[in-house]
UniProtKB/TrEMBL annotation:
<keyword id="KW-0564">Palmitate</keyword>
<dbReference type="GO" id="GO:0006879">
    <property type="term" value="P:intracellular iron ion homeostasis"/>
</dbReference>
<comment type="similarity">
    <text>Belongs to the peptidase M28 family. M28B subfamily.</text>
</comment>
<dbReference type="GO" id="GO:0031623">
    <property type="term" value="P:receptor internalization"/>
</dbReference>
<dbReference type="Pfam" id="PF04253">
    <property type="entry name" value="TFR_dimer"/>
</dbReference>
<dbReference type="InterPro" id="IPR039373">
    <property type="entry name" value="Peptidase_M28B"/>
</dbReference>
<dbReference type="GO" id="GO:0033572">
    <property type="term" value="P:transferrin transport"/>
</dbReference>
<dbReference type="GO" id="GO:0042470">
    <property type="term" value="C:melanosome"/>
</dbReference>
<dbReference type="Pfam" id="PF04389">
    <property type="entry name" value="Peptidase_M28"/>
</dbReference>
<dbReference type="InterPro" id="IPR007365">
    <property type="entry name" value="TFR-like_dimer_dom"/>
</dbReference>
<keyword id="KW-0325">Glycoprotein</keyword>
<dbReference type="GO" id="GO:0004998">
    <property type="term" value="F:transferrin receptor activity"/>
</dbReference>
<feature type="domain" description="Peptidase M28">
    <location>
        <begin position="448"/>
        <end position="595"/>
    </location>
</feature>
<keyword id="KW-0254">Endocytosis</keyword>
<protein>
    <recommendedName>
        <fullName>Transferrin receptor protein 1</fullName>
    </recommendedName>
</protein>
<keyword id="KW-0472">Membrane</keyword>
<keyword id="KW-0812">Transmembrane</keyword>
């Protein structure tokens, strides 16, 4: 159109004699190409007889009205003719391509020459979601998951960072290559891991009041908790159930002082790191030590393992990536415990608990003893423990394989295949419970290469290392690419312990993915649930109250969500009333899991694979990202309602929740506006689609508090993080102020109220879009 006007203007001498020089720079997907168009090198002299090099030309004043109507009519006619010619050509081409039965059409009917052949481009097959989902299901039916898993179960006792662990990394690289993924690569981290000292094993014993040894408590030589400080501790024994905050609150009400004591807690309900951290906090940093025990009564071999670092990643490079032996400040994570911790067997725990003094408590475990809270034994003897763990620097490797998207290859979803390099066994059933989804990655590639599916976005399959040490491999990688990932990665689906039962379903993670999960599980047809009891419970209005549980810090998705702000989801099939007893122990084998699930193991495996596969396809197929940002409006409203129960209490302090409520309202209005913008946008327009999706993709990371330091408080998410900046921390402080209105607690509340308000307001402003679109009266 512009060229047409220019031509007509020159013909009728109605346009200015000057053209501007401009530079058109296009930078998309890393393309830094630059185009410069020079229409004229002439410089025009203005009326002031000075050279004018600006883009604003001085137009000769002349009467153009006599030619104006003719120019407009001519331009319209040219435009109409061009449009009709283009439409006719397009319609003719589409008519030819619609005939897919004969790609080579004879032109003899048109030219009379029977020898002349004209090649007609066949129509490209378009696969819609209704085509892809059945295709995935059919392919999964023929996949032999159990054979793939069983062939990899022979190896065990492979330490993270060992030579054998590197061989497994190389094997995973080759396996990714055989799948036909677009690109495969590895990254290496030098991290500090911890193992038991083989020459000086950990010990637990009962000693007399004069500290002379009275009786040894047998524990296996390889029994330990990673990142426990070494040292010796002696004291009276206190029983604290699961070591949760409410358990210690109960002890406090019973006037049981844990300071200077050794605390014994049972495994389950919460991670070992959280148990030890609670002991340390409640004891004011003076509690001697803590046990983590297992109460299943199935033998001495069922001793739990894990890490007591109350965080993730290498605790000696907090907030920094451990790349290339980079030198960092001499700091360590605040989540490292200040007290030694040790695991013991069920048999040893029963022995200790049978000697306890104090009032009886209704915290029953699996033993036929009278459970008493202590402190101490009836005969006055004490418990002594000695921890001798050794820190070792190791090189660990993560392996990645990407199935590149065709429209937005720089936007991706993560599907982890395995937490590699565990502290005890790298190829134990935990490897199985991450489904060994090589068959799934192969199927995803086959759908692209064979069946013609072209995903809009990329899928990254990954195998992490150092999983049992607190997601070390995953966290170090996140720390290295945090800024990039927040603008590129839009989902993470975690499969740690996805197969633990066959009756109940548990979900944790970002509300952004709840709607997609709910929709997908209703569509999965599985023999696992013939009466649809699981699916019907998900479809009910209160399914979140039944199925959604808080995400634990030892969940593989936790650093993605709480540290990086990437929408993440974990789910697990389990048995609530009959939990799988071997998880995290040396007895956690494929044979044990098969015996536990009996004939349903294959069905559970296939169901999980189809769930993940369908979610991955939907997240990479649709124009709009399948992230339900409106769910956070509901979560914020629930929080506001809880806060308002303290309204009178804050009024007495001279505080108000007006601004917090206003920020919540702005977020809700911003979510509504985004929905309206989406409905009014042509999502076939790549640029317009990208603008909408960028706003959706930023929702999660906007809930990372900008006022918390990633080094000191790495889990900055106000919903799922850990620290005084979170919503839960503010509610806890409000509860404390009911009984203890110290100036410190009041000042902390003022700070929490202000910073949380502005974090939510910032999330609302970002969701709105451009700055000039923000319309609030905050």
């Amino acid at each position: 159109m512009s060229q047409t006007l220019l031509t007509l203007g020159n013909l009728f001498d109605s346009m200015p004699k000057k053209y501007t020089r401009f530079s058109l720079t296009r930078q998309m997907d890393g393309d830094g190409s630059e185009v410069e168009m020079k229409l004229s090198e002439d410089e025009e002299i203005g009326e002031n007889a000075m050279c004018n090099n600006t883009q604003t030309s001085v137009v000769k004043t002349r009467d153009n009205r006599r030619n104006f109507c003719f120019i407009v009519i001519a331009a319209l006619l040219l435009f109409l003719v061009g449009f009709l010619i283009g439409y006719a050509a397009f319609h003719s081409r589409m008519a030819r391509e619609s005939d897919t039965s004969c790609p080579i059409a004879s032109a003899a009917s048109q030219t009379g020459d029977a020898d002349e052949q004209v090649y007609v481009q066949p129509v490209e097959r378009v696969l819609y979601l209704n085509d892809l989902i059945p295709m995935l299901s059919e392919n999964l039916k023929s996949s032999r998951f159990m054979d793939t898993i069983r062939s990899k179960m022979a190896r065990n006792n492979i330490e993270a960072g060992s030579e054998e662990d590197y061989k497994l990394c190389t094997e995973m690289h080759h396996r990714f290559s055989s799948c036909g993924l677009s690109k495969i690569w590895e990254d290496r981290h030098y991290v500090r891991l911890q193992f038991p000292d083989k020459n000086n094993t950990n010990k637990v014993m009962i000693v007399n009041t004069n500290l002379s040894k009275a009786e040894d408590i047998d524990i296996p030589s390889d029994s330990y908790l990673a990142y426990s400080p070494s040292g010796t501790a002696t004291g009276k024994l206190v029983y604290a159930n699961y070591g949760r905050k409410e358990d210690f609150e109960y002890l406090e009400k019973q006037n049981v002082n844990v300071t200077g004591c050794i605390v014994i807690v049972r495994a389950g309900r919460n991670p070992a790191a959280e148990k030890v951290n609670n002991v340390w906090v409640v004891g004011g940093g003076k509690v001697t030590s803590a046990f983590d025990i297992l109460f299943y009564g199935l033998g001495d071999s069922l001793i739990p393992s894990g890490s007591v670092h109350f965080g993730t990643g290498d605790p000696y490079t907090p907030g920094f990536p451990s790349f290339n032996r980079t030198q960092f400040p001499p700091v360590k994570s605040s989540g490292l415990p200040g007290i030694p911790a040790q695991t013991i067997s069920a048999k040893a725990a029963e022995k200790l608990l049978s000697l306890m003094d104090g009032a009886e408590v209704n915290w029953k475990g699996g033993f036929s003893v009278n459970y008493r809270m202590g402190p101490g034994f009836r005969d006055g003897r004490l418990v002594k423990m000695e921890v001798n763990n050794v820190d070792t620097e190791r090189a660990i490797y993560n392996v990645f394989g990407v199935l590149k998207g065709f429209v937005e290859p720089d936007i991706w979803i993560y599907v982890p295949l395995k937490q590699n390099g565990n502290s005890k066994q790298s190829w134990q059933p935990q490897d199985f419970k991450t489904i060994r989804l090589n068959p799934l990655s192969t199927l995803e590639v086959e759908i692209v290469t064979t069946d013609g599916y072209k995903p809009r976005r990329s899928i990254v399959f990954v195998s992490w290392s150092g999983g049992d040490f607190g997601a070390v491999g995953a966290t170090e990688w996140l720390e290295g690419y945090l800024t990039t990932l927040q603008s590129k990665a839009f989902a993470f689906i975690n499969l740690d312990a996805a197969v633990l039962g066959d009756k109940d379903l548990r979900v944790s993670g970002s509300p952004l993915l709840y709607s997609l999960f709910e929709k997908t599980i209703k569509e999965v047809k599985s023999p696992l649930d013939p009466d649809n009891s699981i699916y019907n419970s998900i479809g009910s209005e209160n399914w979140e109250a039944k199925a959604v549980v808080p995400m634990r810090m030892d969940d593989g998705a936790y650093p993605f969500l709480a540290f990086s702000g990437i929408p993440s989801l974990s789910f697990s099939f389990t048995r609530t009333d009959d939990p799988y007893p071997y998880l995290g122990t040396k007895e956690d084998t494929l044979e044990r899991l098969q015996a536990f699930l009996k004939p349903k193991l294959e069905d559970v495996t296939r169901t999980v694979a189809e769930l993940v596969g369908q979610m991955a396809i939907q997240l990479t197929h649709d124009h709009e990202l399948n992230l339900d940002y409106a769910r956070y409006s509901t979560k914020l409203l629930q929080f506001i309602r809880k806060v308002f129960s303290y309204k009178e209490q804050l009024k007495n302090m001279g505080l108000t929740f007006q601004w917090l409520s206003s920020a919540n309202g702005d977020f809700k209005r911003a979510a509504t506006k985004l929905t309206m913008d989406y409905s009014g946008t042509d999502m076939e327009d790549k640029m317009a689609s990208r603008v909408i999706n960028d706003r959706i993709m930023k929702v999660e990371c906007n809930f990372l508090s900008p006022y918390a330091s990633p080094e000191e408080t790495p889990f900055r998410h106000i919903f799922f993080g850990s620290g005084p900046h979170t919503l839960n921390a503010m509610l806890e402080n409000l509860d404390v102020l009911k009984h203890n209105s110290t100036i410190e607690n009041v000042n902390l509340l003022k700070k929490q109220l202000a910073l949380l308000t502005w974090t939510i307001q910032g999330a609302a402003n970002a969701l709105t879009g451009d700055v000039w679109e923000i319309d609030n009266e905050f």
